[in-house]
Cof family hydrolase
Amino acid sequence: MENYFQIAADEIIAFGDNFNELDMLEYAGLSVAMGNAPDEIKQIAKEVTATNNEDRIALILEREFA
């Protein structure tokens, strides 16, 4: 998608809560681990938020795009 939309890695926001999202979190300009993620994922992310049951993705997107 990066090439298709012609956006840079530092313009990408990635959210993840498990090891299958590891590469994406390392690549994105803003990486956010969910509060219920394993500690290894939280350490890689630039930011850690509440669990994925607490609407934190919506709040971060609102903060970044408001």
Observations:
- The CA atoms of residues 15 and 57 lie 8 Å apart.
- The domain at 2-65 is CATH 3.40.50.1000 (Rossmann fold).
- The longest helix spans residues 56-65.
- The chain has one domain: 2-65.
